[in-house]
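Example record for the data management plan.
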Amino acid sequence: MTQNRTIYSQLIKNEAQKLGFLFCGISKAEFLEDEAPRLESWLKKNMHGEMQYMENHFDKRLDPRLLVDGAKSVISLGINYYTNNKQNDPDAPKISKYAYGIDYHTIIKDKLRQLLQIINEKIGEVGGRVFVDSAPVLDKAWAKKAGMGWIGKNSNLLNKKAGSFFFLAELIIDLELEYDIAPTMDHCGTCTNCIDACPTDAIVGPYVVDGSRCISYLTIELKNEIPAEFKGKMDNWMFGCDVCQDVCPWNRFSILNSEPAFNPHPELLHLKADDWQDITQDVFQKVFKNSAVKRTKFTGLKRNIEFLKEI
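Corresponding structural encoding:
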């Protein structure tokens, strides 16, 4: 049986690589004991802002066996989205790199389903579910546990060979596998670049991010008006924010992604500051068709652009 687990684990990692995943690590499906007090403290301090859904399914977030019947293994995967493409107008309101192309949820879910199908074809009938950022799964905790990197001071997962510009996803299955049991050491050292650079002081201490102050939260998750205290502090970001990643020394090792679906819409990079100010519903629908930016809706993006203007 042990030999089979080794063979199956290697097969899964090989197939994941063929599908374009940058990383693949495997952990035993069990209760995340270390994460429980951290999550509880973070919620008690209201660092999730208006993200009420973070309060739901507390137990499920910590135990994948409550999400998938008979779960034995958590397969953590990472897919690179780094690009050196930039918006042409330096004065144009900015969009986070991850949202340049087609919505990553769609792309990654398709790949995960393919991987699950391959597992069923090559190993046998295996039950499981795919997860991409839309269910109560602590992605970073599982990726760290599987040896894919360490949690940096900006609370992102960092990898020595590829930085942090990658999406995380999981396949939770009812098959026992060989587990990666050597989590990566913390390599942040004394560096505080991310803490020092955060425009809204959202990184309130090493490894602790007050989500309610994060520009990504303010421009995407927050449905009400952006609080006036953040006027002049948004660093011209209208959707998401890359500051804490851009200043991270480990991202000098970022490599260009090879996924065509993550390439920006042809018009996106060419829109000037004035074009964004005057953006219409039609242009929004055209440029952000199938994009993660649709999550904030046209009205939300307009709100963000207006807020940036009011200094």
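Summary line stored alongside the record: Residues 1-306 form one domain.
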